[in-house]
Amino acid sequence: MAEGGKIDPMHQFEVQPLFGQGWEIAGYQIPFTNSAAWMAATLVVLGVFMLGGMKRELVPGRWQMAVEGFTGFITGMIDTNIGKEGRKFVPYVFSLFMFILFANLLGLLPTAAAGVHAFTVTSHITITGVLALVSFALVLIVGFARHGLHFFSLFVPHGTPTVMVPLIFLIELFSFMFRPISLGLRLFVAMTAGHILLKVLAGFVINGSAGGIATLAIVSIPSFILMIGISMLEILVAGIQAYVFALLTSLYLNDAINLH
Amino acid sequence: MDAEAAKLLGAGLAAIGVGMAALGVGNVFGSFLESALRNPAAADGQQGRLFIGFAAAELLGLLAFVVAMILLFVA
């Protein structure tokens, strides 16, 4: 019989140093970890994808069409959500969307077949939190630079009765301050939950197949079929979460640019 | 009650919240589809709002998941 529960679904999220154990800044160790390696890999894949498609040919090939599809998608999203003034934020939102999308998809690759343990950088709140804080800081900078202290009118919607202003202000302020938390948390939890689910199902498949023909038929094969379905769902979630992150960033930018 | 058992029970109860979020997400997409079939021409323009609603409904389920994870691994 298999020793049940030997497969630890949380092991995949461990950050391990690859090299540079001796490096440190102000007493903190800063080795080059597998997380950093996968972020670098994401950037390389993204760079190759973009450079291969930025040929500016009059009759675009397939690759250029793929890249133009992505840029057109983000530009359209910014145009509908912010308007013409949002055009200068297209590069930022596009980079954010593509980085998250590629990091999500690279983390789903079955690289264990090649002996490399896949690591999803977006399954760590340190990374998604920093991305969310950058977006939030951009909203604050743009808002205060454009509107000055008038930016605070964001917290008091038009037509609020005077009696209600303090209460509404507090509620709106709280919902505003919760934005970076919800933005980072959503991406991090969605990726973490999916990967835990996949690993738990993989544990069922392995443990079931070790227990003989009966458990193989009852446990392993249904789990494996379910895993295929969940994998497809995870690819969908990887795209949706990247889209939602970019969409919410553009909505928050819209608040900062146009108030409301 | 044993503290460890209470943690596990709490984590299991938090899973109810994830199921409730499933209702919410299903409601978002179901209502969208219902009205999109009534007026297909206007459906494409509302896709952004569809995903905003999806994100808001989903977040609460994810928060329930975070509660479960905190109970199991942190608390």
Describe the secondary structure blueprint for this structure.
The complex is a heterodimer of chains A (260) and B (75).
Chain A: E1 17-19, E2 24-25, E3 28-29, E4 32-33, H1 34-53, H2 62-81, H3 90-108, H4 125-147, H5 165-177, H6 179-209, H7 213-258
Antiparallel strand pairs in A: 1-4, 2-3
Helix pairs in contact in A: 1-2, 1-3, 2-3, 2-7, 3-7, 4-6, 4-7, 6-7
Chain B: H1 3-38, H2 40-43, H3 47-74
Helix pairs in contact in B: 1-3
Give structural notes.
Chain B: It is found in: Cell membrane; Membrane. The complex is a heterodimer of chains A (260) and B (75). Chain A has one domain (11-258). Chain A is 66% helix and 3% strand. Chain A is built from seven helices and four strands. Chain A has helices at residues 34-53, 62-81, 90-108, 125-147, 165-177, 179-209, 213-258, and strands at 17-19, 24-25, 28-29, 32-33. In chain A, the strands form two sheets. Chain A has a two-stranded antiparallel ribbon. Chain A has a two-stranded antiparallel ribbon with strand order 2-3. The longest helix of chain A is centred in the C-terminal third of the chain and has 46 residues, at 213-258. The radius of gyration of chain A is 23 Å and the shape is globular. Chain B has helices at 3-38, 40-43, 47-74. Chain B is elongated. Chain B has a single domain (3-74), classed as F1FO ATP Synthase (Up-down Bundle), CATH 1.20.20.10. By secondary structure, chain B is an all-alpha fold. Chain B contains three helices and no strands. The two termini of chain B are 16 Å apart. The mean pLDDT of chain B is 90. The longest helix of chain B has 36 residues, at 3-38. Chains A and B meet through helix 2, helix 6 and helix 7 of A and helix 3 of B.
